[in-house]
């Protein structure tokens, strides 16, 4: 099938008969009637399909198995996949980037709008909360109409609402505009996980999932690092004008470089040229009827412990390894060292460096770890094998938070030293390792529900991230900054480490597997 050729066909691979599936009760259960993935072990593909895959990839030993056509994202050239991923990851970054943008300017915003410093910080907390809930609305729409239309709409509306923020005359109008920005900018931060799943094969999933998760993480420290200088030099309202410009640039790049990744391989007709399917299709991609349940369905993936426990663990690590540091640093350092916005922004460099270093373990090493085991065993290991890499991430986060809090309290008044920033970097590395490893693990367990898993994990993370800033100040006041490290350590061990230890050794049982040598691929094959 040549690129750009007209075609209309229904791709429906044959389904092999299986024996008893009693051990698979809680295995992979697609939520739609039209399958998105073709199992890599299905032997009965047409000779034309076989020849196409051999010409395109040099092998048919692919997981998942691509469809027969150039519009299938698995069949795209590498440059096209990566260009689209960069745009989606950048879009995801903008969700946390926008929320954190005003952090170094809290003091001047509070003064200009006539509110307290604490109330000014609620402009960030508000967005954190909405970023958690809004993807519940966007996920079912993106499943039915595709990712591309949702992403384009997201950027157009975010651009308009950021203009509203820049022109807001008072606190109430700015809060309203910030809320709308968070609602519209949120899709890529949650459903970006499914874009990775829809585009890249399993053998490279962690590496590219890591790029998406890294950009979400980097949005938090990168924004105040940049906008501290902006607020100090040209005024805090220019923060919003720069966000408007960024949204506009993203929109222009999406038009030629952001094709549709939602591609259903069985049960639907694909009409029109490849170009039309990827860039011009405005009709429904998935004909499955849209129901109210679809808007809350992501919350129900939490009934699966292989999703719930990684989500809870990740949320706790993210709370202390990212949210606490980012939200409380301006107040802790501002009071102790009397920093201006630009100086405060520089302190976030440690979190940026640490996150980038951590991603080398969480992403690249994670794929190497799994692929090496695959070669040794002759088949893909269970997803739980990846969890070994989460333990150093949790440990690094605990150590980093302890160093940050203890060294901050014992630093001399007005005498800054680099030791708290070193702690920030260590925590950032650990947080990023945990982020990539746990999200990839959950998706490996239930690949067909990667969109719902991304939304659910985002929801849990953002809810905890929203609550934290309300009790962090009281904890510092009642317990002390240094002693708060003990509280953080206890929570990260009890809610971060112990759930992963449990699911590491009992995960196969909770997915319905009775034998440790069964693989997730075998589950998917039997369910198909």
From TrEMBL:
Keywords: Membrane, Transmembrane, Transmembrane helix. The keyword Protein biosynthesis does not apply. It is found in: Membrane. It is a multi-pass membrane protein. PROSITE patterns: MFS (PS50850). PANTHER family: MAJOR FACILITATOR SUPERFAMILY (PTHR23502), TRANSPORTER, PUTATIVE (AFU_ORTHOLOGUE AFUA_2G08910)-RELATED (PTHR23502:SF2). This is Putative mfs multidrug transporter.
């Amino acid at each position: 099938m040549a690129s750009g050729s007209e075609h209309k066909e229904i791709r429906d691979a044959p389904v092999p008969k299986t024996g008893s599936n009693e051990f698979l009760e809680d295995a992979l259960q697609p939520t739609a009637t039209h399958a998105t993935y073709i199992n890599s072990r299905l032997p009965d593909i047409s000779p034309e399909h076989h020849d196409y895959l051999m010409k395109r990839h040099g092998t048919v030993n692919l997981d998942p198995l691509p469809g027969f056509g150039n519009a299938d994202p698995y069949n795209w050239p590498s440059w096209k996949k990566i260009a689209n991923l960069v745009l989606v990851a950048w879009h995801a970054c903008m969700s946390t980037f926008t929320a954190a943008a005003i952090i170094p300017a809290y003091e001047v915003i509070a003064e200009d709008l006539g509110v307290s410093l604490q109330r000014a910080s609620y402009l960030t907390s508000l967005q954190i909360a909405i970023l958690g809930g809004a993807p519940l609305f966007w996920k079912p729409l993106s499943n039915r109409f595709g990712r591309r239309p949702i992403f384009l709409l997201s950027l157009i509306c975010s651009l308009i609402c950021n203009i509203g923020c820049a022109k807001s005359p008072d606190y109430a109008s700015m809060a309203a505009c910030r809320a709308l920005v968070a609602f519209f900018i949120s899709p890529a931060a949650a459903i970006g996980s499914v874009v990775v799943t829809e585009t890249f094969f399993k053998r490279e999933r962690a590496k590219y999932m890591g790029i998406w998760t890294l950009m979400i993480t980097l949005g938090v420290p990168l924004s105040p690092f940049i906008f501290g200088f902006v607020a100090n030099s040209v005024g805090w309202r220019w923060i919003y004008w720069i966000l408007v410009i960024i949204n506009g640039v993203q929109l222009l790049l999406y038009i030629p470089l952001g094709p549709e990744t939602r591609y259903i391989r069985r049960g639907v007709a694909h009409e029109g040229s490849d170009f039309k399917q990827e860039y011009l299709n405005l009709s429904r991609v998935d004909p499955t009827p849209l129901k109210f349940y679809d808007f809350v369905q992501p919350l129900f993936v939490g009934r699966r412990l292989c999703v719930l426990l990684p989500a809870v663990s990740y949320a706790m690590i993210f709370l202390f390894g990212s949210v606490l540091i980012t939200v409380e640093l301006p107040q802790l350092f501002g009071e102790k060292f009397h920093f201006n916005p630009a100086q405060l922004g520089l302190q976030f460099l440690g979190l940026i460096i640490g996150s980038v270093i951590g991603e080398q373990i969480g992403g690249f090493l994670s794929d190497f770890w799994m692929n090496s085991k695959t070669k040794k065993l002759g088949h893909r290991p269970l997803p739980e094998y990846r969890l070994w890499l989460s333990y150093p991430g949790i440990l690094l986060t605990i150590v980093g938070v302890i160093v940050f809090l203890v060294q901050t309290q014992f630093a001399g008044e007005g005498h800054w030293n680099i030791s708290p920033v070193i702690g920030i970097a260590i925590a950032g590395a650990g947080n990023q390792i945990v982020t990539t490893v746990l999200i990839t693990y959950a998706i490996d367990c239930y690949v067909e529900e990667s969109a719902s898993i991304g939304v659910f994990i985002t929801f849990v993370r953002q809810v905890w991230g929203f609550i934290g800033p309300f009790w962090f100040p009281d904890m510092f006041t009642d317990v002390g900054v240094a002693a708060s490290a003990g509280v953080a350590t206890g929570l990260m061990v009890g809610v971060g480490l112990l759930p992963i230890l449990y699911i590491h050794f009992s995960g196969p049982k909770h997915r319905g597997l009775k034998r440790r040598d069964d693989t997730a691929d075998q589950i998917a094959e039997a369910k198909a």
